[in-house]
Design a protein that fits this description.
The protein is mainly beta. It has helices spanning 41-44, 63-67; strands at residues 6-9, 28-38, 54-62, 78-84, 88-90. It has a single domain (6-90), classed as Roll (SH3 type barrels). The chain is built from two helices and five strands. 12% of the residues are buried.
């Protein structure tokens, strides 16, 4: 995965701990940056070692795509959300 790639966020809702906000599940936009590998918090929350580490990406979404007609500000507004790469699917 590279910066600028168009990605979609997986829609699953696992019964276990996960750090992917519900508002972005199923949404598509662009990968704005990739930081570094971090321990997987989904594994660590259940006593695991967090391995293999997962890349953390900042994905940019248009606010109107997330909130629809409820968003009454500038349609060009964007929101950056950090999402672990294993939650992203290239488009």
């Amino acid at each position: 995965m590279r910066i600028g790639d168009v990605v979609s966020v997986r829609t699953e809702t696992p019964a276990h701990h996960h750090r992917t906000p519900w508002i972005v599940k199923g949404k598509t936009w662009r990968n704005a940056s990739i930081t570094a590998p971090f321990f997987n918090p989904e594994s660590r929350a259940h006593g695991g070692d967090g391995l293999p580490k997962q890349m953390l990406c900042s994905v940019e979404f248009r606010q109107v795509d997330l909130w629809g007609a409820r968003y009454r500000e500038d349609a060009r507004d964007r929101l950056l959300i950090d999402i672990y790469e294993h939650w992203l699917e290239p488009q």
